[in-house]
Amino acid sequence: MIIPPYLKAGDKVGIISTSNYSEKGNIDGLVQILDDWKLVPVVGKTIGPRYGSFAGPDELRKEDLQQMLNNPEIKAVFETMGGYGIARVIEQVDFTQFMYHPKWLVGYSDTTFLHSHVQGMLGVATIHGTMAADLEAGYHATSWESLRKALFGEKLSYSVKAHPLNRAGSSEAVMVGGNVSVMCNAKGTISEVNTNGKILFIEEVGEKHFRLDSYLTSLKYAGKFSYLKGLVVGQLVDIQEDEPPFGKTPEEIVWDAVKDYEFPVCFGFQAGHGTVNKALIFGANAQLTVSEKGSTLSFKV
């Protein structure tokens, strides 16, 4: 995997939305954070326009991402919002200049499509981390500080409390993953996530119990768990009960999908659509250790 250059004071960074429309107040908050980090924010053309739920029509969102990728002065690109939209434009984007000048791509949720495309097709590391939209609920120091550390190349290591469904073990491998439903939507495309020999991170929000089960079953039958080195389960937020009840908690649904394998499993990692969203470096080597006392996850970059 290629690790983009870490940021330093004075670097220019792009702000765009390749998915849904972003509120101006959240963008202002992100600009202030980047200013505090001594970075120079460059606001893209998708910040402001609205086309239905999107941050502008497909062509504008594609062009904005393309310009940020092509500009060698831009050292990182921050997606501001999830939702839906990257899948509509990703195959039209030319990554040639990006490969000459790799840079950090930051976001989560719908950005999962971008993460898996860039790692699977190009072998470049990206960051699964908090976005401007999260400022709607206020500034969460843990989330933003972990993102800053990832971007500036500081040590990134986490401890996670023990969970009754954890499976003990230790492994070191490249980390990939993201939102479960987005990974399912990417199956059969050039952006499909490659999990072979990797540590997989998963998270989800706002789905029914049965639908979470269907996504995980689909990933299982597609072989996405067959050759894993480890699984880190992030936040499963607002997973709604069925009628009649499905009969399992969201965590039990995940466990049911992976119980027949042998790789270590860590539940309860604070990343995804919850209050805390700790940064993860997809495409970088990660060390995962799970024991009865808890879990540790650290990145070797």
Automatic annotation (TrEMBL):
It comes from the Bacteria. SUPFAM superfamilies: Class I glutamine amidotransferase-like, LD-carboxypeptidase A C-terminal domain-like. Residues 174-288 form the LD-carboxypeptidase C-terminal domain. Residues 13-129 form the LD-carboxypeptidase N-terminal domain. InterPro entries: Carboxypeptidase_A_C_sf, Class_I_gatase-like, LdcA_N, Peptidase_S66_N, Peptidase_S66C, S66_fam. The keyword Chloroplast does not apply. Pfam families: Peptidase_S66, Peptidase_S66C. It comes from Rufibacter roseus. This is LD-carboxypeptidase. Belongs to the peptidase S66 family. Keywords: Carboxypeptidase, Hydrolase, Protease, Serine protease. The keyword Hydrolase applies.
